[in-house]
Amino acid sequence: MAATVTIPRLWDMKEKQEKIVAVTAYDFAFGQLADAAGIDMILVGDSLGMVVQGRSNTLPVTMDEMIYHTGMVARAARRALVVGDMPFMAYQAEPAEAIRNAGRFIKEGGAVAVKLEGGVSVSPMIQAISSAGIPVQAHIGLTPQSVHQMGGYRVQRDEERLVEDALQVEQAGAFSVVLEGIPTAIATKITQRLKIPTIGIGAGPACDGQILVLHDLLGLSQRHVPKFVKQYRQLAVEVRNGLGEYAEDVRAARFPAPEHCYD
Ligand code: KIV
Asked: How far apart are CA 155 and CA 153, in angstroms?
C-alpha cells in the first residue's frame, strides 16, 4: 500500500506538479472504496445535506451530523487524508467557538483536518484553528453556505476580491484552498501565486488538484448535474435496475431459490 497522505506530502505534490485527487464521501462503504481507489484526500462535505439528507441546500446541516459522518469515513481511510467540513454557523461567530468545533472533528470524528468557507472574513478563524494545531483547508469563490448572499449558486468573477481572499487565507495559515466556481483564468493566476495547493471544483484544469461530489461523479443522485461535473458512471440506473429485478423475483416467487435456502 502506498504511504499515507500527509499535509507535507500534499505540499510536495504541488512542488512536483503531481495532481492531487480528492472526492467527497459520507460513509464507511464509500470511504473504503475511495481509499482503495487511491484517492489522496477525502472530504466529508456538508454537501451531504443535499445528496444524503435530501435538503435543498447545506445550511441546516449540524455539527453532530458532520461528526457522525466524519467518523464513518475516518474509520474507512487507510491512506487518504480525511478532511471534515465545518457546517454553517460552526465557525463564523467567533474564533473560540471555531476552535472548539474544529477540535471535535479531530477528537470525535477522527479527521486530520477541517475545511471552512470564506476568505478575508474568516481569516481570523483560520488563524485561530491552525494555531490550535488543527490543519485548515479554506474554500473560496462559490461558497454554498452563502447561497442567499450570492443570490444562488453563481460563478464568482471578481478577480481582485478572489485573489485577496486567496492570499489572506494562505497568510492566515490554511494548508490548502478549495477554489469553487471560478473562471479558469482567475483560478490559474491564484494557483500560480499561492504556495499552498489549490483544489478546484468548477475552476479549470490549472488547479493543483480536483475535487468532485461523489454522488455527482458516479451518477448516484437524481439532482441537477452542474456543467463542471464529469459523470464517470451512472450508478443510479444500475441500482434502480438491480432493485427492480429483486422486486420482480420476489413477486414471481423466483427468489429465494434452493441455493439461498438452509436444509
Ligand atoms: O461540501 C462539499 O462537498 C464541498 C465540496 C464541493 C468542495 O464543499
From this structure: 7
Domain count, the chain: 2
Q: 157 lies in a domain?
A: yes
Q: Report if residue 252 sits inside a domain.
A: yes
Q: Find out whether the beta carbon of 213 lies less than 6 Å from any atom of ligand 1.
A: yes
The answer to whether the pTM exceeds 0.90 is: yes
Q: Write out pLDDT tens, residues 119-144.
A: 999 999 999 999 999 999 999 999 99
Could you tell me if the CB of 188 is within 6 A of ligand 1?
no
Q: Say whether the peptide bond before residue 256 is cis (omega within 30 degrees of 0).
A: yes
Cell numbers of 83, please?
478532511
Instruction: Note whether 51 and 221 are within 8 A (CB).
Output: yes
Asked if the structure places residue 1 within a domain, the reply is: no
- The finding on whether 211 has its CB within 6 A of some atom of ligand 1 is yes
